[in-house]
Amino acid sequence: MRIVLVGPPGAGKGTQAALLAENLSIPHVSTGDLFRANISQGTELGRQAKAYMEAGNLVPDEVTVGMAWDRMGQPDAAGGFLLDGFPRNVAQAVALDGLLKEAGLELDAVLDLEVPEDEVVKRIAGRRICRNDSSHVFHVEYSPPEREGVCDVCGGELYQREDDNEDTVRRRLEVYHEETEPIIDYFKAQGLVTTISALGSVAEVTRRAMEALPGQR
Ligand code: AP5
Ligand code: ZN
């Protein structure tokens, strides 16, 4: 199955993507995590992405589309993948459609996570992620690690993301409304979108998401 997860920053895309990908035995492909891994490894790609991310702006499509498609071409993604944070504007959605078509593939579903802005702000303010792997995500109040400041998955140190400060979050929300939301209508025209509420416990949201996927009811 090939799935796209859309939603504002802090909606819980990464949290849900990890659980859904495990349930469905497909890789979780997060462009945000790929950029953060490149930044911590000090690669050229990371160097190109860093300033855009710190400002809350999108990394240019030329950099992003190639990186994402390369990840989708890895052997573990042959049977499908769950995209988290990509595509993020209409140009990326069109590029993805074209690349999939050339490869004789298509998307099966787009899940749109809906969450009020005040909840997003609370989720982002309390988020802590792991130094070793930014897909290890916690929340000081809603999903605290067993030991304060220590990742339950790998024992790494937890910290607050550089782009989780108030100004950058405001900019990320603007970018979401201006550039990312239009992809929902783009995919609606293909009959692919289901909107689900991302409020409630992590398990409740996972259950709603699973029910929204074709053939999973
Ligand atoms: P990215 O890493 O994709 O960030 P984002 O879209 O802003 O999303 P977040 O990671 O902030 O939130 P999330 O929805 O994954 O929430 P999470 O599960 O962590 O992108 C970062 C940057 O990279 C972009 O700004 C851009 O610069 C660049 N970039 C990435 N992709 C790009 C692309 N395609 N093109 C161009 N640039 C790109 O949850 C949030 C918190 O809430 C956590 O603490 C979690 O524990 C908690 N939580 C989750 N679910 C619940 C729940 N049900 N109840 C209570 N708490 C919950
Ligand atoms: Zn970890």
UniProtKB/TrEMBL annotation:
- Gene Ontology molecular functions: kinase activity
- Using the UniProt record, give the first listed, main subcellular location: cytoplasm
Q: What class of enzyme is it?
A: transferase
Q: Where is this region: NMP?
A: 30-59
The record's EC number reads 2.7.4.3
InterPro entries the record matches: Adenyl_kin_sub, Adenylat/UMP-CMP_kin, Adenylat_kinase_CS, Adenylate_kinase_lid-dom, P-loop_NTPase
Question: Which pathway does this chain act in?
Answer: Purine metabolism; AMP biosynthesis via salvage pathway; AMP from ADP: step 1/1
UniProt-annotated binding residues for ATP: 10-15, 127, 137-138, 200
Report domain Adenylate kinase active site lid positions: 127-163
User: Which SUPFAM superfamilies does UniProt cross-reference here?
Assistant: P-loop containing nucleoside triphosphate hydrolases
Q: Where in the cell is it found?
A: Cytoplasm
Q: Where, by residue number, does AMP bind? A: 31, 36, 57-59, 85-88, 92, 161, 172
Q: Does the keyword Membrane apply?
A: no
One matching Pfam family is: ADK_lid
Reactions accelerated catalytically: AMP + ATP = 2 ADP
Alphabetically ordered keywords of this record:
ATP-binding, Cytoplasm, Kinase, Nucleotide biosynthesis, Nucleotide-binding, Transferase
Is Lyase included in the keywords of this UniProt record? Answer: no
Assembly mode: Monomer.
Q: Which NCBIfam families match?
A: adk, PRK00279.1-2, PRK00279.1-3, PRK14527.1
Entry similarity comment: Belongs to the adenylate kinase family.
Q: What is known of its domains?
A: Consists of three domains, a large central CORE domain and two small peripheral domains, NMPbind and LID, which undergo movements during catalysis. The LID domain closes over the site of phosphoryl transfer upon ATP binding. Assembling and dissambling the active center during each catalytic cycle provides an effective means to prevent ATP hydrolysis.
Q: What does this protein do?
A: Catalyzes the reversible transfer of the terminal phosphate group between ATP and AMP. Plays an important role in cellular energy homeostasis and in adenine nucleotide metabolism.
Protein name per Swiss-Prot or TrEMBL: Adenylate kinase
